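Dear all,

This email documents one entry for the complex benchmark we are building for the journal club exercise. For each entry we list the sequence lines for every component of the assembly. Then comes the predicted three-dimensional structure of the complex as a token string, followed by one or two observations. Please use this as the template for your own entries, and keep the labels exactly as they appear.
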Amino acid sequence: MANKRVELAVLVRPGVSDSISGRDTGMAFDKRIDLLESLEKGDNVEIVIDSKLVKAINDSFIKGLFSRVFARYRSIDQVRKRVKIIADDYYVKLFEKNWAILQAINNV
Amino acid sequence: MRNRIRRSDSKQVRQAKKSFNERQKRKAKLARRNAKQPLSLRELFEHDIKQTDGIEEFCKLNNIEAWGRRTSKYIKLPNQCTLFDSPDKVLKILLHIFSRAKFFSEFPVIKVQGSASFGALYLIDNMCWAIGTKRNWGVTFRNMNPEDNAIFSKIHSKKEDEDGTIISDGSAYLINERVKISRSNDALTPQPYSVIEKKMTDMITLAMKKHSSPDFELSHEQRQAISSTIGESFDNIKSHVPNAEHGYLCGFYDPVKATVTILVFNFGQTISDTLEGKLPEKVQVEIESVISNHKRMKILKPTFTRRNALTLLALQEGISSKLSADNSRGHGLIDYIANCFSLSDKCRISIVSGDTFIRIDNRYKVGHKFFVDRERRMLAFNPNNDIYSLPDSRYVKKLGVVFNGVIIETTIPLCS
């Protein structure tokens, strides 16, 4: 079991862009960092958001990023055991809000 | 280079020179067309120059022949003619402009009555942008008040007024861009709209520091509302309109009202087009159940059609033509609406697609209702927030004009 640290700031270009959006971007980033695969291996994942560089994250990006994860784990509690958001309270709540929606979708 | 025909030339020489001159004329015309120079109106008619596919389709859908044959060069832009209050009027003005582009050589004169609306004028201007690539074109604005002059300084197609009034470039806080949609195989390739978004938020921050407080910074919630407005709109264009190469984005910050207005539009499929017969079975069954209920209760009528009902359904949480591939789709529009109204209940949103108009303010709020198989965020525009009941016709209505694409205008107050 290892810790994997993922910096979302890699998705912005300082001085050029400072927001992260797009469902497809979220899904592509999930595959780029092997998020689900890492969690299934037993790794703990830290998603780090530097507010000085990342000024906004769209809900669609978060849903794209965690779509496969919630299809597999289905509950926020299971995801929280494995994924930690290292960021301002605002972003932590933003991720939790979208996780709640993904949980509802995957538990009908 | 013409070969001059003289009286002293013999018949053979005259014929040869005439033939040479005709050949040169044809070559010049071809060269001009290839150089993509705007052609004269005569040439336009002779060669049946088409506007962009989107504009041609818009004209065709609305039978522009019936709109076009006016004798007056003046087009009235009434006071407060906004998308929010008068979407039909704004779209009809567009059609009048296109008809003038097709049938008249003179530039139109828009007579502004009272205060001009940002959204209406920039919509007009961006459409005219496209006309200007095909023919010599400009639009004159008459009677624009001094306060509006600076705001509309970045109109691309403005011309000096006939009476010599120059609409001067002011220090208005505006962004007006045609934005490319990147469809790279690598979905992590940055999208151009994210660059425009930063330009806009930097512009707003600068303006607020100047007019409000030197320490001003956009809060997380304000950034989220602006980013959501732009990002979700362009994400929808990318996902649902595969042939769209561009979207159009206009952003305006009003320092007096401390509001930002963002207009995003594109040509292509309408919102209801995306829902016709492409949903997973259980969702399709529920959608048809809503439509059948509407028919049974005589809710469907000339002023609220099946297409209007489908457009309203597409707004609801988790309703999307992409659900078969990913069951977490269909949240973009409701997320963006929720983000705006969680920031301020004084936001105003106008959505035009096909012949459907949806207006959103704080009268009807997003609520949670059971639909299909779970609780979802719903916005049904009636007192019970019931998607099976008729929506308020002031908020969801059938337009008299059809727009082949999607227009979304959002006004977000930045001060409480």
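Observations: The longest helix of chain B spans residues 11-34. The interface with chain A takes residues 186-188, 190-191, 194-195, 197-198, 201, 218, 220-221, 223-224, 226-228, 230-232, 234-235, 238-239, 317-318, 326-329, 331-332, 335, 339, 373-375 of chain B (CB under 8 Å).
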